[in-house]
């Protein structure tokens, strides 16, 4: 089954009262359990497309179906759908609230969902990404970039998403940390049956991670590549 | 020869920075106001016509006013309504200003336009004149004076809060929180407010000096706390009748206003320096 079907989708950004269309008539399909890559130079619209799939930009036209259900343009994600699509951001230094301890950042969404055994889930998450559990009461500025990105990955995974969006998750990290994070993501994908969509401008990263990828150029799909 | 003076290892220059001096003066002011009944040497409201307009002496340290009341005791007691009024104004303005500013910055669109135009309108009103008008409608008194001053002093908080909210509205951590299902008031109070509050506190401390002056202005014009209660502004007003022959009657509360205002300005300046990330000491 295809987790995600994108047909003839155009994405625009609101600029004051006008719309500026940045992605034109894109078609994609992503299968369950695969890692799908979006490659391209900066400004090609790959992140804009990702933000639509994340439910963060409601200004799009066309047909998108996610987990077999059609999405409505102009609507924000709520409830179950909101929980099932999560994202890891590009800059680990900007994606954690600077005045909240990690415990609060990670536990608040779980509390809102009314889940029990939050502490167990948190320590399980820390174990999975290879962080020491005693870091949980630290502030983000007391962590390194790689550690922060691991925390961001825990945060996304704690909600048990089916689709994990990765917006250049390693581009702000140095080479050795990059490899660690990519391997971690590969392990998690295998153990959790996650579908992942990864945006990157680095073909090597896409090559290493993805089963299937497209290259975007100037807001359109340029060529399709199959790996493996 | 340079004498390096130190106190517990700290050089004196570092010890007597703006923040510490401001904090010291403010704490002193609050303590004096709290302990006024115990420190003061006379009852501030007992008139003694025989001793009227005495120059400062051993018995009346700051002299007496035209009803023979001891000025030292009156200045001490005058700190109380001033501080009370100032804290009331801050308690009213900071929450209102922050709510308006954060809502404008967070919701954007029409909400922002309406709230910010309202802010601009209030900001363009001359504050003391509007305060006088309000007090003359509501009737003079501590609470009404605070209301009147608060009415014109919230816009600066709103503007600052809006600008700061705008700058973090699109940040990744707020986007991430939204993706995780945090929304509405929980996002505003739990996530945005903690980032806006420090600079609002600095601004409040800086504004306090001005509010003390405005409060004294209201008192001077007879629109503050009513006589015979001691209040610095009205004390200056009553002293101004005899300012050439008995200067201390106006000068003593005047200096008190100056010091109180200066204390809060120093504290605010020091706080701003401390909060500034470029501040390295």
Automatic annotation (TrEMBL), chain A:
Output the InterPro entries linked to this UniProt entry. AAA+_ATPase, ABC_transp_ATP-bind, ABC_transporter-like_ATP-bd, ABC_transporter-like_CS, P-loop_NTPase
SUPFAM superfamilies xref list:
P-loop containing nucleoside triphosphate hydrolases
* One Pfam match: ABC_tran
Q: Which SMART domains match?
A: AAA
A single Gene Ontology biological process assigned to it is: transmembrane transport
Instruction: State its location(s).
Output: Cell inner membrane; Membrane
Catalyzed chemical reaction(s): glutathione(out) + ATP + H2O = glutathione(in) + ADP + phosphate + H(+)
Q: Which domain of life is it from?
A: Bacteria
Q: How does it sit in the membrane?
A: Peripheral membrane protein
For the protein in the UniProt heading, the enzyme class is translocase
- The main location is membrane
Query: Translocase as a keyword?
Result: yes
Which residue ranges does the record assign to the ABC transporter domain? 4-228
KW Phosphoprotein (keyword) present: no
**EC?**
7.4.2.10
**Subunit structure, per the record?**
The complex is composed of two ATP-binding proteins (GsiA), two transmembrane proteins (GsiC and GsiD) and a solute-binding protein (GsiB).
What the protein does?
Answer: Part of the ABC transporter complex GsiABCD involved in glutathione import. Responsible for energy coupling to the transport system.
From the Swiss-Prot or TrEMBL record, give the protein name: Glutathione import ATP-binding protein GsiA
Where does this protein come from, organism-wise? Answer: Marinomonas pollencensis
TrEMBL record, chain B:
Q: Where in the cell is it found?
A: Cell membrane
Task: Quote the cellular component terms of the Gene Ontology held in the record.
Answer: plasma membrane
The membrane topology term of the UniProt record is: Multi-pass membrane protein
Looking at the record, the residues that make up the ABC transmembrane type-1 domain are 79-268
Q: Which residues cross the membrane?
A: 21-39, 83-107, 128-151, 183-201, 208-227, 247-268
InterPro entries xrefs: BP-dependent_transpt_permease, MetI-like, MetI-like_sf, OppC_N
Question: Which top-level group of life is the source organism from?
Answer: Bacteria
Q: Which UniProt keywords apply?
A: Cell membrane, Membrane, Transmembrane, Transmembrane helix, Transport
Q: Name one GO molecular function term.
A: dipeptide transmembrane transporter activity
Matching Pfam families, A to Z?
A: BPD_transp_1, OppC_N
Please give the family membership noted in the entry. Answer: Belongs to the binding-protein-dependent transport system permease family.
Name the UniProt record assigns to this protein: Peptide/nickel transport system permease protein
